[in-house]
Amino acid sequence: MSHDHEKIVKATLKNMPDMDTIFDLADFFKVFSDSTRIRIMCALFEQELSVCCIAESLNMEQSTISHQLRILRRENLVKVRKDGKQSYYSLADDHIKLIFEMGLEHITE
Amino acid sequence: MSHDHEKIVKATLKNMPDMDTIFDLADFFKVFSDSTRIRIMCALFEQELSVCCIAESLNMEQSTISHQLRILRRENLVKVRKDGKQSYYSLADDHIKLIFEMGLEHITE
DNA sequence: TGAACATATGAACACTTATTCATATTACAT
DNA sequence: ATGTAATATGAATAAGTGTTCATATGTTCA
Fold first, then answer.
1. Overall CATH class of domain B2-108
2. Distance from residue B60 (CA) to nucleotide D21 (C1'), in Å?
3. B86 CB inside 7 Å of strand D
4. Is there a contact between A28 and B35 (Cβ–Cβ < 8 Å)?
5. Has this prediction a pTM greater than 0.85?
6. Which residue ranges make up each domain of chain A?
7. Could you tell me the distance in Å between the CA of residue A109 and the C1' of nucleotide C6?
8. CA distances in angstroms from B109 to A11, A22, A77, A93, B97, listed in the order given
9. Are A42 and B102 within 8 A, CB to CB?
């Protein structure tokens, strides 16, 4: 080896987040890594929506949407408001749009 | 149904990005959805690093790191500088730290 | 040239994940 | 009560992904 490993390893680990944080981060970004979930979140930028409206808008099965909404709920990215038979979903985090925009900025460079 | 679907669907689709963009976004965030890749990027916040230094720092196999670096390269998140036998990797996008911080902000709320 | 080292890569495997189908649950209307 | 509609969920399946092992490629030095 042509460079001082030990020193470099130490410096590298100095500001490394702990594993719990790393896993949480990975789980968080995992939510954004699926096209269906992205489309759902984009749909919710406009207004709160019922499950069937989301399904109809994206032209996908209701079951698929429900499953994905569950994941979005689990990661606290959407919230539900129940009204009669319907469940109305809306975004739970103001940063979501910003996060999308950062992604867009990268891919359109 | 208790609300006007057609109108809502139209409004929802109005500002929806096209599918190409959606897929690109998903692919971009997919890179951030793995703990090993996150750790690699965190390591590179400090300084450029050779493959073996990364492997040693994260206590993982060289092959694993190489495979993940390929993915990071493919999505233009790291760049390589070859010097003799070694390949030195560094971050290719200034926004990466910001993206991490947004993720952290969400998970620590 | 040959040995040693750093990195890259293909194949195999175990594991995860998204979607679909079928069905359960809940709310409402008659 | 019964039927209908909206949503949620479990099981099954197909596709995707990360790691490992083995090996190839490329570089340096003796």
1. mainly alpha
2. 14
3. no
4. no
5. yes
6. 2-108
7. 32
8. 29, 16, 12, 10, 18
9. no
